[in-house]
Amino acid sequence: MSVEQTIGVTGGDATAGTVPDAEAAQGVTATAAALATSYPVAPGYRLNVRSGPGTGYAVVRVLSEGAQVRINCQTPGTWVTGPYGTSNIWDNIGDGQYVSDAYIRTGSDGYVAPRC
């Protein structure tokens, strides 16, 4: 969301610019923080990485035990029960790569990254 601001210029001309509001600025900060943070896969699990946000999508690779992931964005999908509860949130960790948030220790039951 932005606010239009008109700035006066000497000589009677005016220039219109866009100034982000506090909410938009916080969203950018939260997005940057989410992308810079790595989250661990639950201990003792090898985690399937799927081509889409659900268990019906193909497995494209498997994360090894002790892996950490960076979450690009999150989206709702198939409900999954894992070591961190039951969730329908899926974490996008790369192009065409999704993991169930129920297996990622994010410290939250909700979204920690922007929606895909």
Percent range for β-strand residues: over 45%
Please list the strands of the largest sheet in the order they lie side by side: 7-8-9
Low-confidence stretches: 1-30
Number of helices: 1
Secondary structural class? mainly beta
Instruction: Describe the largest sheet.
Output: 3 strands, antiparallel
Distance between the termini: 18 Å
Helix content: 10-25%
Gyration radius, to the nearest Å? 20 Å
List the helices and strands in order: EEHEEEEEEE
**Number of strand segments:** 9
Overall geometry: globular
Q: What's the mean pLDDT score?
A: 80
Q: Can you tag this structure with a few keywords?
A:
116 residues, mainly beta, three-stranded antiparallel sheet, globular, disordered N terminus
Structure, explained:
- It contains one helix and nine strands.
- It is globular.
- 21% of the residues are buried.
- A hairpin with a 2-residue loop joins strand 7 and strand 8 (85-94).
- The longest helix has 15 residues, at 22-36.
- The chain is mainly beta and 116 residues long.
- Helix content is 13%, strand content 46%.
Give a short overview.
This protein is mainly beta and about 120 residues long. Helix content is about 15%, strand content about 45%.
Per-chain topology:
Elements: E1 2-8, E2 14-20, H1 22-36, E3 38-40, E4 47-50, E5 59-63, E6 68-70, E7 73-82, E8 85-94, E9 97-100
Antiparallel strand pairs: 1-2, 3-6, 4-5, 7-8, 8-9
